[in-house]
Amino acid sequence: MRAALPIALAAALFATALARDAADLWIDRTELPPLAVATGTEVLARDGTLLRAFTVADGRWRLEPGPVDPLFTGMLVAYEDKRFLTHAGVDPRALLRAAAQAAWNGRIISGGSTLTMQVARLLEESGTGRIAGKLRQVRVAMALERRLTKAEILGLYLRLAPYGGNLEGLRAASLSWLGKEPRRLTAAEAALLVALPQSPETRRPDRFPDAARAARARVLARMAEAGFLDRDRATAALTEPVPTTRKPFPARAPHLAERLRRADPQARTIPTTIDARLQTALEALAARAARHAFPRASLALLVADHRTGEILASVGSPDWTDDRRAGFIDMTRATRSPGSTLKPFVYALAFDEGLAHPETLIEDRPTAFGTYAPQNFDRSFRGTTPVREALQLSLNIPVVSLTEALGPARLLATLRRAGVEPALPGGQPGLAVALGGVGVTLEDLVQSYAALARLGAPVRISALPGAAQPLDRRLFGPEAAWLTADILAGLAPPAGAPAHRLAYKTGTSYGHRDAWAIGFDGRHVAGIWIGRADGASVPGAFGGELAAPLLFETFARLKPVPDPLPPPPPATLIVANARLPQPLQRFRPRGAVFAVNLDAPEIAFPPDGAEVESPRALTLKVRGGTPPFTWLANGAPVILADRTRESALPAPEVGYLTLSVIDAKGRSATSTVTLRP
């Protein structure tokens, strides 16, 4: 008998060893489901703030957990699996307890599943009630414990736990139900997020808030009983309201984020140079402006640091979900007519070539360049004016004269050196390019003005870290760039705008389709576009009235005081007109096919093409010529041998009126106007 006992003990140990080896082999041979869990792409601001997240392929919100409040992980383990850190995937004590409860009550009271078993079920998307399913979860859980660390297993739970609807994982749930990242949670918030995965559909706060509140209360009560929370804190947590609606996921810079995701669809995280605070402020500014703008008008806004080329804010539309305004179109990248915003580059080139200087006198008179006869926006002419004033008033005749002297291809080549690819209607550049007869984007214009702010040294702007870089080619000399910027900085701010000293230019395209304002200080450059995404006209939309105030508001949100513009380069010529070299004192067109004889008479008022409300007496003014003057109205003499340069035509009739003036030498000028009732 005594001899048989050692044999029996040895046999039992051998059998146990065989069973253990068989179990080990059974576990090691477990075919695990894929452990790589797909998560949605995240586009991040420069400080790591989430700008926009995207769903995974099947439309579920599932994100990387990121930093998680230790309060939540501690509460999760204490409530769901308090021996998680020590068991091998299965907790025998919990299984025995669950079996005893089921036998005593005649129904399942608790499942005895560990967090690892829950991860096994979530990985395989298997059910919880069948014996075969439980055995499979046990096997997979034990295999997971052998191949992964506890932190990796917990990470899978934090990605896969269901939270109702298409929400999976802690971070998606925290953003949607609480509107915050899970890095800092209250006890009530942590308890709710622990409770929801147990029955995510029947405890959804937006549909069953009472059930969600009761489940949260059970978690808090058990945490208080276990000593994880003191009772006062648990009691106070019960008073916090349960969220009853899902909050939208962050969608700042949505157009930019979508573009970056499409460019790199495999990236899980896309960092950017966007300033989250500024982006949020400017999106609010754009939305407010859109509410007060014209119906169906859109708006785009772009801000960059021209020293580095980093884009700090990009607003493609006031509301990317607003179909009425075609908000889904990113208008920072849409090709539009720039209106007058290219004029500063013509002047900078002219300064660089020695064709003109800010104090050079230039003519603003009716002039035809072949068959092209541009007019000023207000259909009036200022005569002889300094170049500085011509740019500040955005006069058309002077800039076309300079473009004709430079050649329009020179302007386009300058834009290309700035990294812009202008869209040219017809393929061949004409003089109209100086007035907006070319297609560019808001991003193009901001990049071009960045070069002007950098004294002629272009930079490629980008929202991707490290992608912005200086371009190895200069547009024009630093002296020419500084003189141009100095002129633009002399423009008065819009009425009611902060008194920031910005170098800025406005523009309005033909037919009021686009209203622009682009400007810079010593560090930043910004651009505003307003118009309709479909290219339709917006009557009454002017860059100076609509876009310019928003440009100044943009800089006000960017910083309290603008950075000063740079001082003039050493070789900059800053003198009055009388001290300029003789060729620079007055600019004369080089090759205009027809130009008005400067000694001939010219009708100063009313200018050709003007519309005037019909007065009791129409004032007539003549500039140049030799008195006396004879005036004709629709071919009939009305004033004879008048030696003054200002006369009056009594009681003119409503409608079209052709006025002619003839001086003592027989030279004449004609103006056709419309008299409105």
Explained architecture:
The protein is of the alpha+beta class and 677 residues long. It contains 20 helices and 24 strands. The strands form eight sheets. Strands 7-6-15-14-13 form a five-stranded antiparallel beta sheet, with helices on both faces. The chain has a five-stranded mixed beta sheet with strand order 18-24-23-20-21, with no helix packed on it. Strands 2-1-5 form a three-stranded mixed beta sheet, with helices on one face. A hairpin with a 5-residue loop joins strand 23 and strand 24. The longest helix has 25 residues, at 4-28. 43% of the residues are buried. The model is unreliable at 591-596 (pLDDT under 50).
What's the total count of β strands? 24
| Gross morphology | elongated
The first-to-last residue Cα distance is: 132 Å
- Helices and strands: which structural class? alpha+beta
Major pleated sheet: 5 strands, antiparallel
Strand content: 15-25%
Strand ordering within the main sheet: 7-6-15-14-13
Quickly count the helices: 20
InterPro entries: Beta-lactam/transpept-like, Glyco_trans_51, Glycosyltr_51/Transpeptidase, Lysozyme-like_dom_sf, PBP_1c, PBP_C, PBP_transglycosylase, PCN-bd_Tpept
Enzyme class: transferase
Family: In the C-terminal section; belongs to the transpeptidase family.
Signal peptide: 1-19
Features:
24 strands; glycosyltransferase; 20 helices; EC 2.4.99.28; signal; 677 residues
